[in-house]
C-alpha cells in the first residue's frame, strides 16, 4: 500500500498520528512539521534519543547561537524565557501575514521596556511599530498576566530580563545568518515546534 502522505513510496512505518502506514521519508521529513506526532510515537522517541549526525551538528550550532543570550539568566528568568517562547511557538499570525524575527525583536523589546518602566513605578505602555509585533506584544503581556492570575509570583524586572534575552537572541541569530526567520526557526528546531509561518494559512 502506498504512503498516504506522498502517494509515491510504500508505507512501512505505522503512524499513530495518521492511523496509517507511511514511508520512512515522510516520517523523517514531515515529523512535527506537517504531521502532529504524539509524544509517545516510537519513531519520534527514537529520533530524539539518537538524532542523525547532521541533526546533532545543527543542534550544536543552534545552541552556540542561543547560549550567549541565556547563559546569565537565573532559574526563574529561564523559566520566564521559556514561558515567552511558548507564546512564540503558539502564536498564529492574522491572515497570511508571516511573523518575522524583526516582529519578535520589537515585541520582546517593547514588552520589556513596559515592564522596566513599571518596575520603576511608572505606568506606560511601550508599543512596537509593526502591527504583527503589536499583536505579539499583547500576547506576551497576556500570558504574563495569566500566570499571575494563577497565583504565580512574577516580578516585572525579572520578566523584562527574560524578554531582553529573547531580543538579544534575535540579534545573535541574525548575525549567524538564516534569513528573516532565523531565530524562529532556530527555536523551533530546539523546542521541536513548527515555525509560525507554517500555521499562517
List the helices and strands and how they pair.
Elements: E1 13-15, E2 20-22, H1 24-30, H2 42-49, H3 53-70, H4 75-90, H5 101-119, H6 131-149, H7 156-176, H8 182-191
Antiparallel strand pairs: 1-2
Q: What count of helical segments does DSSP give?
A: 8
Integer count of domains = 2
Structural class: mainly alpha
Q: Name the average pLDDT.
A: 89
Can you summarize the main beta sheet? 2 strands, antiparallel
| Major beta sheet, strand line-up | 1-2
Radius of gyration: 19 Å
User: What is the 3D form?
Assistant: elongated
Helix content: 55-70%
Say how many strands there are.
2
Beta fraction:
under 5%
Secondary-structure element order, as H and E? EEHHHHHHHH
Rounded to the nearest angstrom, the distance between the terminal CA atoms is 31 Å
Contiguous low-pLDDT stretches (5 residues minimum) are none
How would you describe what is shown here?
The chain has helices at 24-30, 42-49, 53-70, 75-90, 101-119, 131-149, 156-176, 182-191; strands spanning 13-15, 20-22. The protein is mainly alpha-helical and 201 residues long. The protein has two domains: 13-49, no CATH class; 55-199, no CATH class. It has a two-stranded antiparallel ribbon. Strand 1 (13-15) and strand 2 (20-22) form a beta hairpin. The protein is elongated and about 65 Å long.
